[in-house]
Amino acid sequence: MKASILSLSAALVTLTAADNPIVQTIYTADPAPLVHEGRVYLYTGHDDDGATTFVMNDWRVFSSSDMVNWQDHGSPMSLKTFSWATAQAWAGQAVERGGKFYWYVPVRHFSGAMAVGVGVSDDGPTGPFRDAIGEPLVMNNEIDPTVFIDDDGQAYLYWGNPGLWYVKLNEDMVSYSGNVQQVTLTAEGFGPRQGGNGQRPTTYEEGPWLYKRNDTYYMLFAASCCSEHLGWSTGPSAEGPWTYGGVLMPTQGSSFTNHPGVIDFEGSSYLFYHNGALPGGGGYQRSVAVERFEYGADGSLPTLDMTDE
Ligand code: FUB
After folding, report:
1. Res 4 pLDDT > 70
2. Per-residue model confidence as pLDDT tens digits over 91-100
3. 281 in Cβ contact with 255 (< 8 Å)
4. Residue 5 contacts by C-beta under 8 Å, 6 or more apart in sequence?
């Protein structure tokens, strides 16, 4: 698959010549793809050059109509968008509802706890985004929100490390009804972790990604720190119960984290993830890549290797 940005001479100009990683001009992480009106929008985090820990101050957006030529839409949201955030622009996901785009992201709150904020754009998928509510949507010192709108219109926000939590979002997408729910992590649901302890008894680590295909709900996740692989579980509803499916992508490459995002686009299915494959890359200089895949006849996910194609 040809799919890269090699260099930019202007904000929306791309030069395409290579394969994975998709973006070769900056370090990107935590991909969250969104299909909207015949185009793939790719929301990512942004690792600072040369950092020796996670130094992430803004998020980035890229888009493509063919999964080959990618446009760079710059940084329509950053830590500065959230007046109450102090650091750690980590792994989020965007969704469209009623013509607005909502981008859920984990950041560090000035209290010291990790929280989930919501950016909103009235101007399309590339923003700019503003703070939708001026405070965290949820805050329990856990990270990595994924958002999903079910066929009946009910929206769900899941997030968590080391736990897995969810709320039912209201139609306004910036508030929720009922209590925050915690998923009970069982070996049947998320696979047994080798050497697991009470706090992390299963392979589930972080980076949940919830979606539905046919009548099956899929929960993908980063598994078994450190180094992470990608795992998957399925359930009969957006609230589970979850049954562990297996390994989606084994531990590979020089990044000790990974992060899944799946879409269907123009008749093909794609897994977005990250690794450390760019020159100078590694655990704190990651890059987003993509693999095309096919589901099994029973809806199962394959085990995919990272490639440079
Ligand atoms: O990118 C910072 C953090 O690393 C993310 O929130 C996690 O999912 C892991 O990728």
Report:
1. no
2. 999 999 999 9
3. yes
4. 14, 15, 16, 22, 23, 24, 25, 62, 70, 72
Q: How many other CB atoms sit within 10 Å of the CB of residue 297?
A: 6
- Cβ contact 219:160 at 8 Å: no
> pLDDT digit string (tens) for 14-24?
434 348 999 99
Is the pLDDT at 173 greater than 60? The verdict is yes
Which atom of ligand 1 is nearest to 206's Cα? 8
**Amino acid identity, residue 204?**
Y
Q: Rounded to an integer, what distance in angstroms lies between the CA atom of residue 119 and that of residue 104?
A: 6
pTM: 0.95
Give 2's pLDDT tier (boundaries 50, 70, 90): very low
The bridge status of strand 100-109 relative to strand 85-87 is antiparallel
Nearest residue CA, atom 3 of ligand 1? 90
Res 226: pLDDT:
85
Nearest 5 degrees, angle CA 10-CA 15-CA 20? 125
88 closest CA partner among 72, 110, 103? 110
Region for residue 280 given its phi and psi (left: phi exceeds 0; alpha: psi -120 to 50; beta: otherwise): left
Ligand 1 centroid – CA 305 distance (Å): 20
Q: How far apart are CA 287 and CA 255, in angstroms?
A: 9
